[in-house]
Amino acid sequence: MTDSATLPAINRRFCAAPMMSWSDTHCRNFWRMLSKETVLYTEMVTSGALLQGDRQRFLRFKTAEHPVALQLGGSNPADLAECARIAEDFGYDEINLNCGCPSDKVQSGKIGACLMAEPALVADCMDAMRQATRLPVTIKHRIGIDEMNDYDDMAAFVKTISDTGCKTFIVHARKAWLKGLNPKENRDIPPLQYERVFQLKAEFPELEIIINGGITSLEQSKVLLEKVDGVMLGREIYSNPWLLSEVDREIYGTGAQKLTRQTVMEQFIAYCEEQLAEGTRLHHLTRHITGLYQGLPGARQFRRTLSEQAHPRTAGIDVLKRALEHVYAVDNNPTASLL
């Protein structure tokens, strides 16, 4: 294990959310081309899958992705402790426990938001992981579930977990209805209640509180950062990844050199060439970049070319270059040089 005193501090002022089927290693490598500072989170990996399945498949990542956190799903303290040890060996920077996913599928395995109803069990899990690794162990949760609806319920949950030594809480500012709403509806229908997260930070000033849910711009992020320690964005980053290009400068005060989409795509093409040579299919790479030119001339044709031509096993870099012709054709886009 690495001596905790030598571990680099993680600045979670701006985080990219863990998103199932989206935030895989290819997505994270693309995002890292846009922001060097944003803290990246993996898709959730269940403890069972990690202990019994292909660890390389679930855990592989590139050095360029740092700082990167592994999000785990599970409720068995011993299993999660072993997963934490494995994650440290793989070189992750943080372990995050998922107590926010409302999916029926994960509830049946006692994973996700349903764990908010069992704070003592969650505390056992957090304590076991903290004992197993010197990496920071953090938690992502909702403001409540079902009839657990009061601020005091959430505060009691946080107090129980913080007593284990956990210092970082990522709070999705919506409650989750585990009965009656599906995961998509749980991302939209329960109202956002940012004030509860602000109150949590005021009551527990010693804790690092990261707010998640409904954040769509850096301007909104900066307003929220006046009340909490960090923000976490998910769907907005995925649909409009260019937002990340201003994070280093606007949120962290670094990255003085202004990026262009063209320079980012030059890096991404090189990454794709490397991955294609290793047997990765083009669609698994390009599906993450379809929103890069959102709102610009040629963006629709760019997306269409990738969606229609990147799927065949034989698809290569030429497909990506054809897609880019739609946004870099001077006749079509007089601002092409600024992309």
Automatic annotation (TrEMBL):
* Ranges of residues in domain DUS-like FMN-binding: 16-320
CDD domains (UniProt xref): DUS_like_FMN
Which cofactor(s) does the record list?
A: FMN
**Marked site: Interacts with tRNA:** N98, K184, R187, R300, R303
Q: Which residues form a coiled coil?
A: none
The superkingdom listed in its UniProt entry is Bacteria
Identify which residues the record assigns to the active site. Answer: C101 (proton donor)
Q: Look at the named UniProt entry and state the broad enzyme category this protein falls under.
A: oxidoreductase
Catalytic activity reported? 5,6-dihydrouridine(20) in tRNA + NAD(+) = uridine(20) in tRNA + NADH + H(+); 5,6-dihydrouridine(20a) in tRNA + NAD(+) = uridine(20a) in tRNA + NADH + H(+); 5,6-dihydrouridine(20a) in tRNA + NADP(+) = uridine(20a) in tRNA + NADPH + H(+); 5,6-dihydrouridine(20) in tRNA + NADP(+) = uridine(20) in tRNA + NADPH + H(+)
* Any one GO molecular-function label of the UniProt entry: tRNA-dihydrouridine20 synthase activity
Which keywords accompany this UniProt record? Flavoprotein, FMN, NADP, Nucleotide-binding, Oxidoreductase, RNA-binding, tRNA processing, tRNA-binding
Stored Gene3D superfamilies = 1.20.120.1460, Aldolase class I
Q: Does the keyword Membrane apply?
A: no
Where on this chain does FMN bind?
A: P18, M19, M20, Q71, K140, H172, N212, G213, G214, G234, R235
User: Short name of one Pfam family for this protein?
Assistant: Dus
Q: What is its EC number?
A: 1.3.1.91
Q: Any idea what job this protein has?
A: Catalyzes the synthesis of 5,6-dihydrouridine (D), a modified base found in the D-loop of most tRNAs, via the reduction of the C5-C6 double bond in target uridines. Specifically modifies U20 and U20a in tRNAs.
Tell me its family.
Answer: Belongs to the dus family.
Instruction: Output this protein's name.
Output: tRNA-dihydrouridine(20/20a) synthase
